[in-house]
């Protein structure tokens, strides 16, 4: 496994995430994906670019979508891979893949679109050059 193939985030599923059918509730997958993106930014040492207090801008989720492939159960370890799919003028897209560690099953594919906005008006604003370079 190459460095680029290794998961950047992994976590164990808690009982609180389980629905009445005995597997992770659909909405919780988005929490896992959001945590994976934050871990991706932390791993790249660029999380400060996404904190409004240090970057002068904020990022709002414009779109979140997920496709479910296999269920995740309590006590499973979930591994997440994150990639930057696209960097636009005011938005950026992440692709997130979730896998079950015990058997490598691909459990979900997700995508987030974040929009960079100004702090004073919450209107779209260009992604700062330093952030764009750090992501590239």
From TrEMBL:
<dbReference type="Pfam" id="PF13279">
    <property type="entry name" value="4HBT_2"/>
</dbReference>
<keyword id="KW-0378">Hydrolase</keyword>
<dbReference type="InterPro" id="IPR029069">
    <property type="entry name" value="HotDog_dom_sf"/>
</dbReference>
<dbReference type="InterPro" id="IPR050563">
    <property type="entry name" value="4-hydroxybenzoyl-CoA_TE"/>
</dbReference>
<comment type="similarity">
    <text>Belongs to the 4-hydroxybenzoyl-CoA thioesterase family.</text>
</comment>
<dbReference type="GO" id="GO:0047617">
    <property type="term" value="F:fatty acyl-CoA hydrolase activity"/>
</dbReference>
<dbReference type="InterPro" id="IPR006684">
    <property type="entry name" value="YbgC/YbaW"/>
</dbReference>
<protein>
    <submittedName>
        <fullName>Thioesterase family protein</fullName>
        <ecNumber>3.1.2.-</ecNumber>
    </submittedName>
</protein>
């Amino acid at each position: 496994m190459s460095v680029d193939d290794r998961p950047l985030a992994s976590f164990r599923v808690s009982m609180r995430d389980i629905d009445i059918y005995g597997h992770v509730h659909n909405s919780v997958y988005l929490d896992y994906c959001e945590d994976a993106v934050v871990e991706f930014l932390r791993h790249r040492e660029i999380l400060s670019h996404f904190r409004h207090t240090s970057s002068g801008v904020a990022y709002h989720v414009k779109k979140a979508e997920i496709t479910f492939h296999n269920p995740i159960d309590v006590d499973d370890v979930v591994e997440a891979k994150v990639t930057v799919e696209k960097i636009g003028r005011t938005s950026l897209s992440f692709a997130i893949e979730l896998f079950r560690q015990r058997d490598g099953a691909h459990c979900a594919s997700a995508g987030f679109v974040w929009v960079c906005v100004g702090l004073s008006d919450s209107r779209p604003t260009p992604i700062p050059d330093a952030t764009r370079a750090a992501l590239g």
